[in-house]
Design goal:
By secondary structure, the chain is of the alpha/beta class. The protein has helices at about 25-35, 50-60, 80-95, 120-125, 140-160, 175-185, 195-200, 205-215, 230-235, 240-245, 260-270, 290-305, and strands at about 5, 40, 65-75, 115-120, 160-165, 190-195, 220-225, 225, 250, 275-280. It is about 40% helix and about 15% strand. α3 (about 80-95) runs parallel beside α5 and α8 packs parallel to α11 (about 260-270).
Length: about 300
């Protein structure tokens, strides 16, 4: 098994580009380099500029490459479809011109990936983690979302970028039945999966079990950890997913409830090879502790056998 750990801007609270408290992107890249990463995700559309020369210079300065771009937007609405296709074009134009990461033997597809996540629906955001309360799409709405995802995937494939669908708490692809349905409706030749250990746990699934369940379509993995005490309190409140993260539902890896030695064993059993990205969503007003927490996550994972 050959893996490398990467980073993501959400560890600095970067999830919504309209949030006025986001740290400068140059600082995030600098601290990611200081944490020892060799690669980082691009983050939400519009955070890093779509400027090849400028981004290349900062990445090189900090010893980094880009492991993935991200579509994190409303995938259901027809009115938003042209917007997400434009985002896909812009992101692919950038990430395919940057220095590539090496491909591990046994890795399914080369980086950079395009992670695809549905987001932007209040009715699901407030029901994150609550399978029994979350409203579901009608058959017609689900079909529209699948059509939009296939369109994003085709656009990414025009650039040679591998699309990976990321189930996300608070979106319309979150729970076990929705993951099963998306895998059925989007064939592997069109897109793989990016499974996130923290989101799986948050939404009622055992991460190790689900990594093994979908090993044949698993192209990319996200790691995060969950503070069980805060999570249980959040589940009792009418609260948005990122509001829960802002009060600490996510924590440095190794300090929460998830069993990372067990997750490593599961990845060994399925012979997962490639890249894994650490995430810890937080309030960006607390990003002054991000480097400390990222280092703690990295050091813990190294202590149980993972490689940077």
């Amino acid at each position: 098994m050959s893996m490398n750990i990467c980073g993501a801007p959400c560890c600095w609270g970067v999830d919504d580009v309209k949030n006025p408290y986001l740290p400068p992107w140059q600082r995030v890249l600098k601290e990611a380099g200081e944490a020892g990463y060799r690669a980082i995700e691009l983050g939400p559309y519009g955070y890093l500029p779509i400027d090849i020369d400028l981004v290349s210079e900062e990445l090189e300065k900090n010893g980094l490459a880009i492991v993935a771009g991200t579509i994190f937007d409303d995938l259901v609405s027809e009115d938003n479809y042209e917007n997400i296709l434009r985002q896909t074009d812009d992101i692919c134009l950038l990430i395919t011109k940057l220095s590539p990461l090496p491909m591990h033997e046994g890795q399914h597809f080369p980086t950079p990936y395009m992670t695809i996540m549905d987001w932007g629906h209040d009715e699901r955001d407030y029901a994150a983690g609550h399978q029994d309360k979350a409203p579901r799409l009608s058959d017609e709405e689900w079909s529209a979302m699948m059509r939009h995802i296939r369109g994003i995937c085709r656009k990414a494939q025009e650039y040679g970028v591998r699309p990976v669908i990321h189930p996300h708490a608070g979106g319309y692809i979150e729970f076990a039945d929705e993951i099963e349905k998306v895998v059925k409706d989007i064939p592997y030749e069109i897109a793989g999966l990016c499974l996130d250990t923290g989101h799986l746990y948050y939404s009622g699934m055992d991460p190790a079990t689900w990594l093994k369940k979908y090993q044949k379509v698993l192209d990319y993995v996200h790691f995060k950890d969950v503070n069980e005490t805060v999570y249980r309190e959040v589940m009792k409140q009418h609260i948005r997913f990122f509001e829960g993260c802002g009060i600490g539902s996510m924590c440095p890896i190794g300090t929460g409830i998830l069993d990372y030695p067990g997750i490593r064993k599961a990845l060994e059993e399925i012979d997962y090879n490639g890249y894994i990205t650490i995430e810890q969503e937080r309030d960006p007003r607390n990003s002054d502790t991000s480097l400390r927490d990222v280092k703690a996550s990295v050091n813990y994972l190294k202590s149980v056998g993972y490689e940077i």
